[in-house]
Amino acid sequence: MHPNIILQKTKTLRLMGILLAMFLMKSAYSQDEDSAAAPVKIKPVKNTFESIWIIDNQTVMVPIKGTFEMDFQHRFGVWENGYEDFFGLFASSNIRLGFNYAPIDKLFVGVGITKYKMTWDANVKYAILEQTNGKGIGNGVWPVSVTYYGNAAIDTRPADNFLHFSDRLFFFNQILIARKINEKLSVQIAPSHSHTNVVNGYYSEPGKVSPERKHDHFAVAMMGRYKIKENLAILVNYDQPITKHKSGNPNPNLSLGLEVSTSAHAFQFFAGNYYFLSPQQNNMYNGNDYAKGEFLIGFNITRLWNY
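RESULT FIELD:
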């Protein structure tokens, strides 16, 4: 082959190599630009809490569609009597059995029965907003999760305890606002409203309304969960009454406990001041004073099934 032809082909191959290298560099640079300019995919933050409960309060958690849950909640007696009733473990206890189901996404409905006054409750829970991984607020980005919880309860004791059917009823509404700070710490604040048709009907003659207490009571709960290990966490809860009554004002509640969780179970063991297992009764009638050491031991067990 003529030397000039070989030289020409060599120059052509070099030029093609240079152009190919320039194209690859430009392509890589463009991809980097596109990656930098691409918006972060907005996703809901998962596992703010491991259970629908944090001691005596609900959390923002709403299980996925098709989830069935069974709750078992137990409160022993106050431990102030010491060995006499083995620190409350042998005292009169309170128990609640609950059953809940998620028929659609973000909605949880359920029923439960409590030993105290044989109280039945029907409840509903709906996730209004979910915390996301983006920054700022709006356009699908939310710094907190917001959930509504409400229940209606009925005292099913014999009729001689009441003058009217409506005397049996009491109600509860709460807005739950939570944020997962990091992989270990989650916090929540929850203002609430409780309403009882017959105030002090539990402690006086049937149907008699106390002029010393209001039918409506406002309170706020503050709580947190800190993970020590993957399946072990510390729980803290505080409930502060807001409404002031002429007499019989309820005491605040202070609780501290541990939570052990798996994919289908959550077990919470704690000490606190609340004995009742309906939130409106706890908020309106709590007589245990943590300043006097009037604590009791309790536990919650939840079991989930997905269908």
